[in-house]
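Quick one, T. Sequence first:
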Amino acid sequence: MTTRREFLTLTAAALAAQAAGLKAATSAADRPLDILFLGGTGFLGPHQIRYALSRGHRVSMFNRGSNAGMFGEAVEELVGNRDSKIDAGLSALEGERRWDVVVDNSGYVPRHVRDSVELLKGRFGRYIYISTVAVYDFDAGTVFPEDARLAELDDPAVEEVTGATYGPLKAACDRLVQEILGESATVVRPTYVVGPGDHTDRFTYWVDRVHRGGDVLAPGGPDRVAQWVDARDLCPWVVTLAENDTPGVFNAAGPASRVTRDGLMWGLRALTDRPVDFYWPSNELLAELEISQPMMNPGEESLVFENAASMKAGLRYRSLADTATSTLEWWQAQSEERRSNPRRWPDAEKVQAAISRLKKESG
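Structure tokens:
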């Protein structure tokens, strides 16, 4: 497990070299595929589609028509709705047309996923469902291999996606894809997906805040494991699974070696030239001041999602230096209006109150 001491032994030059890393030019796939993406204009879809195009695959995209034309004439756009009761529903996917692979990025409600799978069944070779590690039953343990128990919906009729229902709904979708399709199904369960373009601003908060220096309220539970996956690693790998016709269930949860929250913070500190002082709050203080920290759920125990299967299947997790540097560069290139309105960052006054309390207690 990477520790503060190990991070600090890395020189700035070495970290910069990691971040800069030369990327090999993308080569054409041995066999062009017809790939249908369900969804494709959010965070993950564009990374997947651009990589698929660079490999020479023929791409169709089904969504509600948002951001029409973002790929020009390179992508066939099929307009409809995952909910068959809304507008044209799935009618654009009806008929006898076949695709080699379907990549489902937008399945959140079991009814929607079941309708899509049953409509398309027999007209594709492989169905790749993008699930989430939130599908696991967190009351069942703290270490989660791919065969760990999944969460259950309290009410199977529920379709509203909320913080409480998101995981169980995705678990129900996850199950039915495997039950209906068997060996034709591939399920990918990412943890926090980060990197340039991340519209959730979760990882971005920590990168930006540490880079700015000064007094930083670090995450609660410094010894807890932190896991993430860069979209620039995850999304090309999904296309690789399609090319290799790889079945199975995979936790996409990096980095390659376990890192604690403490190690993550010191790793980010190594990338800034400004003085940084960390203040480590207790879970009780965070609760008292009602501070919610992005990516850092409260609690006493680490949740660890095993990643050996994904690495065996070819997923490579890039360095923290690369992900953090690229995320910061992307964030700093955003408009002032966008950077002034980040999503779900902690209240600055509450954070300062916590730091003041911790300074007083230590001094």
